[in-house]
Amino acid sequence: MYNMNMTINDSILLSYLVSDFTVSVRDPLWGDMLFTPELAAFYRHPQMRKLDRIRQLGPVSLLYPGAVHTRLSHSLGVCDISRRMLISLLRNGCRHLTKTGINSFLCASMLHDLGHFPFAHSLKDVVSRSHESLGTEIIRSDKSLKELILKAGADVDTVCCIICPEENPVTDQEIIFYQHLLSGALDPDKLDYLCRDAYYCGVPYGVQDVSYITEHMYALDSRPALKISTASSVEHLLFSKYLMYKNVYWHSATRCATAMVKSAVQAAIEDHVIKEEDLYYLDDNEFLKLCDSKNYKPFELVKLSSQGLLYNTNCERQCPGDLSEQELEELKSKAASLAPAKCESYEIIVDVPERISFETDIAIIGTDGKARAFSQADELFSETSVAYAFTKTLRKVRVYTPFEGKF
Question: Is the pTM of this model over 0.90?
Answer without folding.
Answer: yes
